Prior knowledge:
Number of strands: 0
Distance between the termini: 36 Å
Largest sheet: none
Strand content: under 5%
Number of helices: 10
Helix content: over 70%
Amino acid sequence: xxxxxxxxxxxxxxxxxxxxxxxxxxxxxxxKKADMKISSQEYISIALFTTFLLFLLLFPTISLFFxxxxxxxxxxxxxxxxxSLAVLxxxxxxxxxxxxxxxxxxAKEIEKALPFASLYLSTVTSSRLPLHTSxxxxxxxxxxxxxxxxxxxxxxxxxxxxxxINTALEREIDRSPSKSLNDLLWGVLSAxxxxxxxxxxxxxKASSLIEEYRRKLxxxxxxxxxxxxxxxxxxxLGTVFFTVxxxxxxxxxxxxxxxxxxxxxxxxxxxxxxxxxxxxxxxRSTPAGE
Length: 290
């Protein structure tokens, strides 16, 4: 189904995609780093085709809705046209930024596990096996998710395409979404080309990454104490204070029934919702992502 949609999109808008791509030169690199198996021309064609179909759907629907609601069909026509253009613009912007979002999520996952993965990789390379064999063992047994996938691409370039390890490293650096992983691979590539000690380099790199991770963990622990204090003061104590104060004021004014719904909303809906948002933000900001 997706293949049919892609083909139809390229059929109708493929000839326009090259001109549009000239306005967004970074899209091709973003698609590669996001590991999206689609060419930049096909992707732009799908974006244009989708926005076109949305316009055909939204414009008459919104025009009819505004016309019936207001009784002024000219106003409905103009409002529908403006609203549809705004939705199409936002949709196209989303298509352009979606590869960046995917790339960013992959990079974040890689960088969270990289300190420990580099330590494991330095242990594997200490056996003095050929570099591509060490990479193969790492990607097969390490269980480091996205990092193992990226390293496995190097193995595939060597074993399936017959590239030498240095060229395979260069290709991986070009398509990896993580700057930290790129730095590590650049160091491995430099050591491989110059005949340096790759294991010693990885040990030093792992040590610096672990130290950086400890620093982030230390900063997070201090920030977390501040976040908890703010949450307890602003949300928990604020809710209790408002509930007690509103009950007293409502009792004096004789409007106790009117304040009960507001108190119930604050206690049973607002406070738990803010708590869940707080927990989500804390989880997103942890160095380990757990």
